[in-house]
Amino acid sequence: MSEDRAFIKSGRNTIIHKDRKLDLVIINSETQPRIKVTQHGLEPFKEELPKNRRDAKERYLEIIHISSADVFSEEKQLLFIQALDGREYKIDYSKVGTKLFVRIHQDSYL
Is it the case that residue 1 has pLDDT exceeding 50? Predict the structure, then answer.
């Protein structure tokens, strides 16, 4: 199943974006802000979620529910995203609403 996904999970809390054609939409929980991972970095996702996987593919998106069984099986307080812009980002859900919520963790991981 992971062969057709636009990401790879690594360790206990890292997502690696691997497909330039699809942007990732990270959903930690229904109450937390959604993050969109593009080939140029991270940004807030303010749009309406696609209704199903086919609709997501038509919009060049892949939805990742962090707490689903095929990802991490639980909500995360800290999440690391290796984006296609060569940076690793740290998302700290305990700091939502501050400038420390999303920040560059490692400027060049490649």
Answer: no
Q: pTM of this prediction? A: 0.88
Q: CA separation (Å) from 47 to 50, 56, 59, 95, 106?
A: 9, 12, 11, 22, 28
Q: Which two tokens stand for residue 94?
A: 């305990």
Across all residues in the chain, what is the average pLDDT? 91
Q: How confident is the model at residue 105 (pLDDT cuts 50, 70, 90)?
A: confident
Question: Residue 64, Cβ neighbours under 10 Å: how many?
Answer: 24
Question: Cβ(38)–Cβ(26) under 8 Å?
Answer: no
